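Standup notes, protein team

Yesterday: finished cleaning the Amycolatopsis vastitatis set.
Today: Transport permease protein structure.
Blockers: none.

Input for Transport permease protein:
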Amino acid sequence: MKSPSIVMLRRNFKHIARNPTSVFNAVLMPIVIMLMFVYMLGDAFDVGVDYVDYATPGLMLLAVCYGLGATATSVNSDMTKGIINRFKVMDVSRGAVLTGHVVASVLTNLVAIAALVGVAFLLGFSPSAGFLDWLGVAGIVVLLAFAAGWLTIALGLAAKSVETAGLATVPLVMLPFFSSAIAPADKMGQGLRQFAEYQPFTPIIETVRGLLNGTPSTGYAITAVAWCVGIAVVGYLWSSATFKKRA
């Protein structure tokens, strides 16, 4: 007999496959943004290296955010359309329902990032990372996707409707643009520079960038892991409390 978590995961993937818009947002939109910045705007940024090498780490993490809207609307739809009541009758655990959404979100993000990195190599991306560095990149990416997944589940559960659930993730999509993903923080104007330096995505991006360049920074890595763990804990506790209240 299959576990409830696996059943929920399969269900979520079927829903994703039936929604081409969510597939576009999660996989193709980050690639479109990469092409736009590298080809159209890359020469406008003085970053000391080939712009594709600078931008790829940030765009990898931006790709994590682009599929979150579909996750938020999916979990909210489950709550507002009575699906959860059916699961309760079938004795499906709360953990299985939420975990299925999170795991589906993480796996979708990994597919999107793999596609993005493939396009980056076609554009001339040439990282200096060794095997252990790539393992570190994978670990940070999965940790961020896991944390963002739980926070997105919480936002989706807290929203009053499917429409507002989708809008709730917009700040998460926009936040990487106000980090060091596209341009170095020290080249930004007063106020924006400080915000970019101290928001969560910058240390995460700089950790991935350092690993891909073969020059990892322990300080950035500790800060990045701390942010991811903190976001995951907040998202999990918030999701569990909201689910228990609404279900």
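Follow-up from PR in the comments: The two ends are 26 Å apart (CA to CA).
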